[in-house]
């Protein structure tokens, strides 16, 4: 993903220096034997077929594109360093661009949905460099972890809510870095 983003920004096509591999044996999974089958058997023993056209479509939602300029991103990062940020994640340095944009989007969605008590955010983290031993960036298999962040809506929409959201997201990223294969038996 980083290679693709960098290539798009630069406008130049570069050759990947590492050999691309699809060999899944490079992922040292501690309990790899039948996790996927067990997971599917638990969730959907008969695995019914559901055509895509049967999916629920909501008429009240609209698609939007937001442009995040450098100036907007910097103002988000500055807003996140307020004293209201989560105590365990309170840092003097501003959050990363990813954390700032995701926190802003999360709060916007919570406001729009008018959620009452608790909100949950899911995002993915690339674990190739986080596992032991690290996996080459030439690996083209799935090595992505779902990170889950939960927060009370009052904390997100209250004073210092943006800093709170940034802190919660950063905690999830830090947790993914400490133990990237935690819960891997539930991955599918």
Structural notes for this entry:
By secondary structure, this protein is of the alpha+beta class. The protein contains 6 helices and 2 strands; from the N terminus they run ααααββαα. It has helices spanning 2-10, 35-43, 70-80, 97-113, 153-157, 161-178; strands at residues 118-126, 144-152. Strands 1-2 form a two-stranded antiparallel sheet. Helix 3 (70-80) crosses helix 4 (97-113) and helix 4 (97-113) crosses helix 6 (161-178). The two termini are 21 Å apart. Mean pLDDT is 76; it is low at 50-56.
Structural class: alpha+beta
Counted beta strands: 2
Give start-end ranges of low-pLDDT stretches.
Answer: 50-56
**Secondary-structure element pattern, one letter each:** HHHHEEHH
Q: How far apart lie the N and C ends?
A: 21 Å
Please bin the fraction of helical residues: 25-40%
Give the overall shape. Answer: globular
- For the report, how would you describe the main beta sheet? 2 strands, antiparallel
- Lateral arrangement of strands in the main beta sheet: 1-2
Rg measurement, Å: 20 Å
- Summed over residues and divided by their number, the pLDDT gives a mean of 76
- What's the number of helices? 6
Query: What share of the residues does DSSP label as strand, in percent?
Result: 5-15%
GO molecular function, one term: acyltransferase activity, transferring groups other than amino-acyl groups
InterPro entries: CAT-like_dom_sf (IPR023213), Plant_metabolite_acyltrans (IPR051504)
Keywords: Acyltransferase, Transferase
What's the arrangement of secondary structure elements?
Blueprint: H1 2-10, H2 35-43, H3 70-80, H4 97-113, E1 118-126, E2 144-152, H5 153-157, H6 161-178
Antiparallel strand pairs: 1-2
Helix pairs in contact: 3-4, 4-6
């Amino acid at each position: 993903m980083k290679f693709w983003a960098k290539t798009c920004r630069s406008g130049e096509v570069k050759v990947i220096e590492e050999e691309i591999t699809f060999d899944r044996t490079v992922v040292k999974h501690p309990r790899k034997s039948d996790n996927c089958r067990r997971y599917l058997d638990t969730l959907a023993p008969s695995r019914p077929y559901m055509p895509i056209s049967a999916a629920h479509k909501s008429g009240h939602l609209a698609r939007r594109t937001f442009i995040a300029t450098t100036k907007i991103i910097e103002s988000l990062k500055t807003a996140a360093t307020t004293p209201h940020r989560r105590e365990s994640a309170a840092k003097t340095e501003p959050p990363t661009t990813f954390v700032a944009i995701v926190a802003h989007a999360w709060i916007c969605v919570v406001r729009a949905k008018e959620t009452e008590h608790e909100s949950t955010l899911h995002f993915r983290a690339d674990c190739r460099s986080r596992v032991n031993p690290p996996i080459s960036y030439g690996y083209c298999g799935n090595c992505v972890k779902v990170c889950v962040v939960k927060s009370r809506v009052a904390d997100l929409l209250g004073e210092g809510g943006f800093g709170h959201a940034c802190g919660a997201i950063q905690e999830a990223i830090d947790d993914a870095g400490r133990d990237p294969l935690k819960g891997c038996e539930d991955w599918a």
